[in-house]
Fold:
Amino acid sequence: MTPTASPARTLPRAVGQFVGFTSPRILLACLAAAVVLRIGVGDYRWGNLVWVAVVLAIQPFLEWVLHVFVLHARPRIVAGRTFDTVVARDHRAHHADPRDLSLVFIPLRWCGYLVASVVLVGLAVPDWSGRSSFYVAAFAMAVAYEWCHYLIHTDYKPRTALYRHLYANHRLHHYRNEKYWFGITNTTGDRVLGTAPAKDEVPVSPTARDLLGEGRGATRAAGR
Structure:
């Protein structure tokens, strides 16, 4: 399955297409390794669920912060030089063409940073019983992020209330106003931090597809 394949319409085809991309395969391999480690360590305790709860509690706000301050970062001019990040440029390209599946996933060059960050943060957990539980939860959440983001950008239509909610939320971000609705796997961060208005409370943004407003390949967003 190539990155330029048309967005899937059925769930089985979506799954097959999803695992054809590199970053999902890397994260799925990390999750499998974490599960093997968790089984190998043994020493199951109810207290290990604390680390799962920590991951679940942090995820909505981590998504929000990264989306707002990293993915939507604008170029900065310092001492006459323009500084811009690759990840922000990649995200602008994703907004310009939301149906290009090659732009949906975490870029390969950043996937390695993500894996290394999870491993390093896990070392702060005091023992391998809790640490391996943290790794399972963290990599499972990373896979869930990639899956949710990918599926929303396919032609698969929502069938459950939860997915309908996530689908509508993220599409409003892309096609109505890029300054709101930053959640991917859930919308808790948006609700707590004030970026989850009703659709008609904010105007259609002319820069939802052209984040810098430079008119390069951008089209005016239409409310959905």
Observations:
- Residues 11-201 form one domain.
